[in-house]
Prior knowledge:
Elements: H1 6-18, H2 24-33, H3 35-43, H4 50-53, H5 73-100, H6 105-116, H7 121-124, H8 127-140, H9 145-152, H10 156-161, H11 175-185, H12 193-202, E1 206-209, E2 214-217, E3 227-229, E4 232-234, H13 238-246, H14 249-263, H15 271-281, H16 287-296, H17 313-324, H18 330-339, H19 361-377, H20 381-384, H21 388-399, H22 406-415, H23 419-428, H24 430-433
Antiparallel strand pairs: 1-2, 3-4
Helix pairs in contact: 1-2, 1-3, 3-16, 5-17, 6-8, 8-9, 9-13, 11-12, 14-15, 15-16, 17-19, 18-19, 19-23, 21-23, 22-23
Amino acid sequence: MVAMDSTRAELAHLYRRAGFGARPEELDAALDRGYQASVDLLVAPPGADAGAVATPPPELDAEPRRLGKQSDRAAKRAYRIAHREQGEALVQWWLARMVAVDQPLAEKLALLWHGHWATSIRKVHSARLMLGQNQTLRSLGVGDFRELARAMVRDPALLIWLDARRNSKTLPNENLSRELIELFTLGIGHYAEDDVREAARALTGWRIDRRTGAARLVAALHDDRPKTVLAHTGDLDDRSLVDLLVAQQASARFVVTRLWQRLVLPTPPPDDVMGRLLAAYGPGRDVRALVRAMLLDPVFRSAAARHALVKQPIEYVVGALRALHVHPAAPVSVALLRLGQQPFQPPSVGGWPAGAAWLSTSAAQARVKFAQWVARQADLSVLAHLAPAARIDAVARLLSVDAWTPRTRTALAAASPDVEQLVTLALVAPEYVVN
């Protein structure tokens, strides 16, 4: 079994976790820079991203007008078509951006935060609002977590998703307050039901102007009386509530653990590692510094962390498209639908599952169909020009796979005379599916 050089394998691991995998030329450049310099480049890239500039957000038409109960069948059908087309344009844009960017960490974190502040267009019914949320996750997702949380509790798409636009002082709605505390900032076990009820009062009064897409506070609907949350009493509003929550030590540990389990290992960090990461996160709740500390941590660079995560479908699909220089097209959206993870459509406020949940029989079949499609679209001349025996290691280099197991290598050897079949099998091999 021919294995990738250990330094190159470590860098390949870095680019899988901090992005969507590295192309051979990207790994060559990373080898010249060294590991720490590559981390620094990923975490704090200089200048504009040419790939991002080349994939600007879609210019969405005016929102389809919402229809009343008396609308005829043709009008309802036209509304559904317009709504679906805008949603598809949004999905295609983000996939194209993830494939095109030169600085992938921002997109990887935007995807991570999309699963954290999970919001679905199926209920929001607005591509514009989902695009706005996506841009918020990207622009604020690498800075102070407090600023991200402050923005998200006023995010129009999230307010609609969690029924917060119906939250008033006469009839408080607890959906947003419960998820803000349990799923977004503190985690289970760090609050009481009274905290949820009181926090709901702090979040009252926000309404969405569907014409402009803006959220605004209606003072007459906001409860401005004192509230008590986590033993703190004051005239809490949405901002001061967020400030109170993210100042808790439990919040820091929660955020550190959430990112660790998405970027490093599925289990929480050991106490000594947690101490290092909390120090990096610091009183400024610095996500960029936290991610840098994770990527430089000895545990991240250890053999135990290598291939310990299963690629989520979006990571898998985007990584394959990037490696093979294939532009997203309609079949990609179909593949993600079959794999169970489409951008802007998480199944619940808890986001998508992780780990072995993606290794079902139906998912394996969907990966095969996608792999066949992408292999047909790709320019595989770099493999076709080689002798069949040399193609096995070449496809590993193309896909940044450290090494093939003997079993996989035998299967690839049988397929090596046909480069499309070879790439198809490589894309569904366990060595590529794991992260």
